[in-house]
Amino acid sequence: MAPLKVGIAGLGTVGAEVVRLIEEQGRLLSARSGRGIRVVAVTARSKVKKRGVNLRGIEWAKSPLALATDPNVDCFVELMGGSGDPAFSAIEAALKAGKSVVTANKALIARHGIRLAKAAEKHGGTLNFEAAVAGGIPIIKTLREGLAGTTVNRVYGILNGTCNYILSRMEQEGLTFAECLKDAQRLGYAEANPSFDVDGHDTAQKLAILASLAFGTKVSQSAIYVEGISSIKPEDLRAAEELGYRVKLLGVAVRTAKGIEQRVHPTMVPKSSSIAQVMGVTNAVTIDGEGIPPITLVGPGAGGAATAASVIADIADIARGVHTTPFGRPVEKLRETKKAPMERHEGGYYIRLMARDVAGTAAKIATHLAKEKISLESIVQRHPDGIDPTGAGKSSPMPIILITYATHEDAVRRALAAVQHDKIINGKPQVIRIEKN
Amino acid sequence: MAPLKVGIAGLGTVGAEVVRLIEEQGRLLSARSGRGIRVVAVTARSKVKKRGVNLRGIEWAKSPLALATDPNVDCFVELMGGSGDPAFSAIEAALKAGKSVVTANKALIARHGIRLAKAAEKHGGTLNFEAAVAGGIPIIKTLREGLAGTTVNRVYGILNGTCNYILSRMEQEGLTFAECLKDAQRLGYAEANPSFDVDGHDTAQKLAILASLAFGTKVSQSAIYVEGISSIKPEDLRAAEELGYRVKLLGVAVRTAKGIEQRVHPTMVPKSSSIAQVMGVTNAVTIDGEGIPPITLVGPGAGGAATAASVIADIADIARGVHTTPFGRPVEKLRETKKAPMERHEGGYYIRLMARDVAGTAAKIATHLAKEKISLESIVQRHPDGIDPTGAGKSSPMPIILITYATHEDAVRRALAAVQHDKIINGKPQVIRIEKN
Would you call the peptide bond into B86 cis, given omega within 30 degrees of 0 as the criterion? Predict the structure, then answer.
């Protein structure tokens, strides 16, 4: 069979690595996929930039769109990024021309995935995006193919290495969020404008894709509740540690009686869970299937080589003639996401309050919680720096840490609003949701 | 498209669950695979046994072979087990008749995998065996397809739930191997004759399959060094804990300069590694790819529902028309396994010796190790039950625990033979290999 002719748009770290791997591993790849794979054309913003790969004999296309519609290209690989053009138009044009497409672009798939999947189905092409979520972990393939016979009840994970790096260092070294963010930026783990990562939006885009594959619903970013990690304090991580938990930024999608609940927020997970062990920039995803114990995949979430390996696996699948619908079933069978409102979320909560005057405050807080039928699993009054509050420390605010049994989010919100209304605490209550395994 | 007609041989826990899942999840499955899936015929030893599934409208074949060659069957599913007949002949007959085959039979694939893969290739069928290794974890698909572009340097894991259950309980409760084995048998985790599990043979069969997929070599059980867990003592687990390790029965296949080293033995793994966190009957596999951080998959290694889910995923792939070579590349491209001899294994070692007379013994042991150029990372002389050996305890044997830096297996063997020859220790030295992540 003639080799699969690949065109690559975008020659950053990942794109250059893909070119290099296809050249170096040509024989391995053709043995594995039963068909040769050859890069015939590329394009990128700069033609002259040094990339450390040999582009001799490879055509330079004048634009992503020209590459996507080049009759000499069988498989269009989009590695430019960005949720709009030129990536979107180029991918759509390639699919409309009957080509297969591989992309690592989570933003684009989260935003336009359904429209592109329709185009792929209509014109008989394949749309693969393994590298879009948890870079080097084969989570898309696992959900799409490996669990074809499993009814998924929950999928959750650490999908952003930057946040996990920051939380791991805060926990291990007792540092503040700001200190760890600065280090992450210095090490290249975080952008100059870190909001997209630390505010949870990157995780939300990835979660939207996983939820669609897991539950057969249409990708919908707007169905996701999002909360970032910037409010997490070292004292929260210390308290978590003492209570047997770790704090992770999780993306969680779970089937409930009220619909599919999709949420991104700092989460307390039991220290013994697989996901709690995942430190640093590593990613992890856990899948709870009906009637079976959880499956967890752990591995690199980013990095040129890991991402490129996933792109190559997607290309090899196309070379082998594997044809799957992009979201695991035809678009017409994907249901609209019924969004479970966050106020109806049920679970345990960690609540940290700075009580102004301890003696009366604890009782008042307890009354407000009781009014909302919230039961407490534990309550810890923490003497800051070991000062005994019965003595000189009496006037300084004292942290009270509550762990609730499973309750409703709106009950927690109402109880804490009442506490704030009483003016018995300083600042805002800190609330972290607990996720049991 | 006409539905895929499935014939199932073997209606134990897994077989019955597969029938039930196909019936219950018919719509989900056809949405996911783009084609209906229907069980048209079954066979098992007893036709009258109660199985809790509805077999009405399903033909009862008079033998596995008759089912395998039934012209009405597109896909033959073998769930009888056993490395010989009737499973082997039935699968071969089905493949020769151009059918696709799904099996959960590790013993058969480890023994006859290459011959069956040849038959599949020759007659255009598919041979899928996701459930054969680590039951509910999609490790076959990950190695075969998800890492198509990755050069694997090492694959290792906890592949036997019985052994991990025993070691976990020994560690957590300070019990002996015999006590935990008895409990495992009572709970149904271990067979009446536990040798196949606890002596490492089950792990070896699974490792042989993983190694073939990872390195593109022919499955070869005889290339594997095998050692079980029955010699592990609670004091080894205690010492491991103190030194920052846990003991797991691992199957390890690693690319070395001398060939592919394949080994099954109790192994000390750093407590911080993903694999060390895996407790109880859970399985886990870690893959080290060239230039990328490790990927670890954790999940159920056995159990009817988890195994059945993997069988269903294999059937769904066949329904979708996914065609892969059984070992990830054509049989003619699989190399003969070049077995790296265990004597040339390089790594760190944990050694526990019962010294007869402490004063002179430590020095003599050190001399023997130095003669073999073995350097020590740590040495611990342990006073049993806190008795001070300078006092009354002097005559009772005292454990000496050594952790070596990386050295050669044959050097360790020679040094310990010399120590034994000196008659300065009681009994045999305990040796546990260390695997770094």
Answer: yes
